[in-house]
Amino acid sequence: MSRIFFILIILLVDKGILTAQTSKADTGKVEFVQSDKIKELEGKHIQINEKARIKGYRVKIHFGADKAKAKEIKAQFIAKYPDVPAYEKYDQPNFNIRVGDFRTKLEAYKFLKQVQADFPAAFLVQDDIEFPKN
Question: Does the pTM exceed 0.70?
Answer without folding.
Answer: no
